Amino acid sequence: MSQSASPRSRSALIALVVLVIAVVVGFAVWALGGDDTESSSAATPPSRATSATPSTPSPSPSEATTASPSPSPTITSSCEGPDTVFNEEGIEQDSLLPDCGVEKPVTVPQQKKSGLGLACGGEYPVILYKTTTSGAKTSICGVDSSGADFRLVTKPKGGEVVDLKGRYEPDLDAFVADDGATRYTVLAYDGTLQVTKNGKKTSQKASDWISLDNEPDTD
Known about the structure:
- The chain is an alpha+beta fold.
- About 25% of the residues lie in helices and about 25% in strands.
- The protein contains four helices and nine strands.
- The longest helix has about 40 residues, at about 1-45.
């Protein structure tokens, strides 16, 4: 009886050992799996934390480039010299250029204090006409390019600038201004300056003249 029971006891012992090993292995696997889950959970911050900081939008390239429009002036030079070709492109201009060497256009306060110069300016910024004669330089200064309101500005050689309210006389095709007993007349078709003083008229032929209507200079 005791000899036949011994193999059974050995088998039961082996089964018990196998069961214990299986339990230990299973526990170890479970423990390792739990650690990995906790580690990954700890390494990854909550989505709430990542969305807490708002992003700052940056301007698009088109916004940056279109912020400052570039000007497109119709006149690129500041004055007209002896070799300057006026309006070579043949486009409509807003004003003639002042002659290089003369004073700059005056401001409105300067105009109100001491009048216009040959470069015009102030409330009469548009140079409608320029002529150079043997005895003077003369400019016709307009409020705008229409010529409806203008002043006649002339500077005799060695004299002071004379700034006068002007008018256009279509029958003469001339710009005319009166200064007491003296009348100044600029013939628009050839730039001649006529000065009539106390009934005596003198005429000065133009050596150089130009109008905003793009008429050619003449000698």
